[in-house]
Amino acid sequence: MKKTLLSIVLSFGLTSAIFAQSITNEFFDKVNYIGAFDGVIDWAKNWTNFDPTTTDYPATTATKGNGQFSRSAGLHISANETWSGVIKLDGWVYVDAGATLTIDAGTIIRGTEKSALMIERGGKIMAVGTEFKPIVFTSNQGAGFRAQSNWAGLVLCGKGINNNAGGEGIAEGGIDSPYGGTDNTDNSGELKYVRIEFPGYEVATGKEINGLTLYSVGSQTKINYVQVSYSGDDGFEWFGGAVNAKYLISYKTEDDDFDTDNGYSGMVQFGLISRDPAIVDTDAANAFESDNDAAGSTAEPFTKSIFSNISAFGPAKSATEPATLLANHAGGSAMRLRRNTKLQIYNSAFLGWGLGLRIESDGSQAAANADVLTVQNCILAGIRADKFKEDGTIFDAASLQAWYQAPSRRNQFITANDDVKIAAPFNYATLNFQPATGSPVFNASYWIPTAVNPLAFSGETRLVNYPNPFSGSTTIELQLENEGLVRVFVIDLAGRTVASLQEGKLTEGKHRFEFDGTALPKGMYFAKVVAGNDQKVVKMISK
Question: Which of helix, strand or coil describes residue 172?
């Protein structure tokens, strides 16, 4: 795999180390498609919930918290503790430095009004669910009575680097937890297969608790498969730090979905944003909102995080549905990059937003001219008003459009959402975010050397398996006519991936992969090969 990655890096003429913070970093899966989904694997299956308002959650059996809402009076966990079952969160609960809160898979935490869980600087949370037993933070209200801001949210404070004066800050929303330091590799624990439903609480104007707030969280913290739904403020917000994440979902959020501030320098890949045209904040609601800091200063480190493979579906299904967008949806942008940010966005699709790309401040526009701030291999589609909007003096709308559409950036603008050929991203009864055959998202990512030279299987391409039936292990053989990015994996009868054998560039010719099914149940499996819009499948029997 390392040799494959190196060949891709060299094909772009890059000589910098693959560990440098860039889109070539080993953190990123080098896929061939734009957006979060490949048309085959649904990573949002089983652990998510797109209808939590009507879910019948069980009654609580234990209470954590003392009903107090200040750092001085709230409950502090000062020794290691484990939660399981169904918990009522009542008040502000702090996990102090030196303590670890472990939350077992399948645990449900139901928050009362304004309640929140804070991981203090030096504390840890180990909330590791599974695909079929996720950990759920949700409202204490009953089914049918839940709504945004039923409780406050989950907050992690770390020792990472930010651009606040003195390198430290105090968490917003009155929770008053200090954050920041000099260690961008700090470890605040792990979140995996976690849902956060009906959070977001505005204590005072501009002083909010978001769905998941990450204050200077370090890169040894692990965040994967987290869904924030019906947040009364932002879905996710980062204040400095360098934590990385994959597989994030912001669903029916009121305000911004992904908000980056104060020198956040981490990397995020595979994110889903899905808006509701009837739900919006008292401020313009954006898919991305990014600032260097609130003052738009040149304080370092700059906000320079990297996002890749985001599928962002706004409030507008089409040019006429809804007939009129709510004001703060109409004024919301797919990408609002402002106040000296140097954010980088790659391989992402934005459909159905009020405004498209908006770059504000001369500092951000100058960074864009130098491609320090950049948008590459992205799609804008179905934008209801200004596709390109500027608020500085370097770009006007026409020059910003020219910047976006420069051939070197390989971006696309598509008039109608339907032309992107995503299955059903605006049908809340039967949501389906997968791209269909022929979608322009295929063979268009940064890692494809040329967007006009896709790999396609020919009639001579062979996919065989031997021995078949097999006992223990078997060989999968693939003959390719052209080189390109290829995925080879094995799924069971339920469609679950049980083995990933190849993901990256393959040369033309014959390739062999061994599938070891010794530890798996006997029965039928399918070896699948995917390259762009094309795929081949061979059936295998384990006996």
Answer: coil
Secondary structure (3-state) at 140: coil
Torsion of CA 253, 102, 270, 372, to 10 degrees: 90
Confidence label for 318 from pLDDT (cuts 50, 70 and 90)? very high
Could you read off the pLDDT of 471-510 as tens digits, one per residue?
Answer: 999 999 988 877 777 889 999 887 788 998 987 778 888 8
Give dist(CA 80, CA 123) in Å, integer.
10
Class of residue 122 by CB neighbours under 10 A (exposed 0-12, middle 13-18, buried 19+) = middle
**CB-CB neighbours of 7 under 10 Å:** 14
Residues 475, 463: contact at Cβ < 8 Å?
A: no
CB-CB contact of 345 with 368 (8 Å): no
SS3 460: coil
The H-or-E segment that residue 270 falls in is strand 267-274
Give the distance, in angstroms, between the CA of residue 371 and the centroid of all CA atoms in the same chain.
23
Long-range contacts for 204-209 (Cβ within 8 Å, ≥24 apart)? 204/174, 206/172, 207/172, 207/173, 207/174, 208/172, 208/173, 208/233, 208/234, 208/255, 209/116, 209/152, 209/153, 209/155, 209/172, 209/173, 209/175, 209/233
- Distance CA(13)–CA(247), nearest Å, equals 29
CB 538 within 8 Å of CB 526: yes
Give the dihedral sign, CA 533/421/402/378.
Answer: negative
Largest Cα separation within the chain, whole Å, is 72
| 3-state SS assignment for residue 404 | helix
Give 523's strand partners. Answer: 542
Q: 205-216, pLDDT tens digit by residue? A: 667 899 999 999
Residue 374, strand partner residues: 344
Going by the DSSP 8-state scheme, the letter that residue 277 receives in this structure is: T
Residue 349: name the closest of 318, 320, 389, 308 by CA: 308
* Neighbour count for residue 295 (Cβ, 10 Å): 10
Can you read off the two tokens belonging to residue 344?
């980088």
380-to-253, 356, 420, 425 alpha-carbon distances in Å = 20, 7, 10, 15
Q: Confirm if 250 and 289 have CB atoms less than 8 A apart.
A: no
Amino acid letter at 35? G
Q: How many CB atoms are located within 10 Å of the residue 448 CB? A: 26
Residue with tokens 């990512």: 445
